[in-house]
Amino acid sequence: MPPVSASHDITGSSMGTPWPPPRWAKFFEHTGSKQPMENGHIDDVDQAILHALQEDARNFSSADIAERTGTSDSTVRKRIQRLEADGVIKGYSADVDYQGSGYPLRMLLYCTASIAERGDLVADILAIDGVISVQELVTGEENLLVTAVGESDSDITPVAQELLDMGLTVADEVLVRSHETTPFSEFAPE
């Protein structure tokens, strides 16, 4: 298989290397898409960029991603900038092993807030010491999922108390043994 040239652009023009590159041909044939994002939809190249960034945003350079997507380095950089500007890429963060860093407890607190207030409460909940994430849930009675970490129960109890003081009902508390993530498979090239 010939090496992928960095001279491709998203329109498919190249300087001596076929478009799409042979190893990506099946991927683009299956989806039939080579157009950039329009009307809030992302195309196959955007998806492949997102998959690579989810896989290892720290170590993949735009040149590495360009090779994977059969596009140029500058196309990847422009696409990433656009995805950031459009809010598709919200930021970059470290995947922290809280247990390995001395905070062995990870607690999920399922809470209920009034529907009118729940979105407004997220920033205040995130400001509570020990809280690392808040998810708004749209089905079921519990409509907020708060994740907190700590060294012991004495670190988690004040979190629950602050949630109660904010007028939330803490319906359930679940202790998490492990938490793993993976890139979204729909973004992966076939």
Give, in spatial order, the strands making up the sheet with the most strands. Answer: 2-3-1-4
The total count of strands amounts to 4
Distance linking N and C termini: 17 Å
Strand % is: 5-15%
Say which CATH homologous superfamily of the largest domain is assigned: Winged helix-like DNA-binding domain superfamily/Winged helix DNA-binding domain
> What is the H/E string?
HHHHEHEEHE
Give the low-pLDDT segments. 1-37
CA-atom Rg in angstroms:
22 Å
**Tally of helical segments:** 6
Largest sheet, if any? 4 strands, antiparallel
Under CATH at level 1, the class of the largest domain stands as Mainly Alpha
Q: Which descriptor suits the 3D outline?
A: elongated
**CATH structural fold name of the largest domain:** Arc Repressor Mutant, subunit A
Mean pLDDT, all residues = 81
Portion of residues within helices: 25-40%
